[in-house]
Amino acid sequence: MFIQTESTPNPATLKFLPGQTVLDMGTADFPSPDAAGSSPLATRLFAVDGVTGVFFGNDFVTITKADAVEWDHLKPSLLGAIMEHFQSGEPVMGADHQPASGHAEHTGEDGEVVGQIKELLDSRVRPAVAQDGGDITFHGFERGVVYLHMQGACAGCPSSTLTLKMGIENLLRHYIPEVTEVRPVA
Fold first, then answer.
1. What is the Cα 154 distance to its own chain's centre?
2. Segment 129-155, tens digit of pLDDT
3. Were 182 and a residue from 2, 130, 161, 169 both cysteine, which residue would form a disulfide, CB within 3.0 to 4.6 Å?
4. Contact 134, 152 (CB under 8 A)
5. Distance from C-alpha of 64 to C-alpha of 18, rounded to nearest angstrom
6. Parallel, antiparallel or unpaired: strands 28-30 and 13-17
């Protein structure tokens, strides 16, 4: 098994490509070891000292490290943990895992506008962000403001504010006049 790595715009995050499917559908975000219980792979990765976040996409694993830890020291252990996991035959996610679109549900007014927002996010934004090892999902829409949740390499990335304001906000405002602003949520 040969695992490739790619840097991301977030210097604290590295993207690992195991050369096989990680998740059949959706994404999975583990911002802490406590959240990793539903995933044998995430649990194994958090066992490596210095790991602070794990994110799974279709064909990649994104890992965030503590600031005090250097990638040169952490990377060999992570490569070993990923390889061991895939060779063990264990599932990436436990049997109770239900894949989701990642978007929050929206009921009530503005249903048509929210549908357009989600469609643009799915067709234009999420594929590009996945290339950088992350995901951005719809969280809410209120009085012209779109609230988005950033995961994986996008969470805590120094360029995420620029991406939100100059990229995603301009795109949504161009296609959907009801959108006036985009804001991140934790």
1. 7
2. 888 888 888 999 999 999 998 888 777
3. 169
4. yes
5. 17
6. unpaired
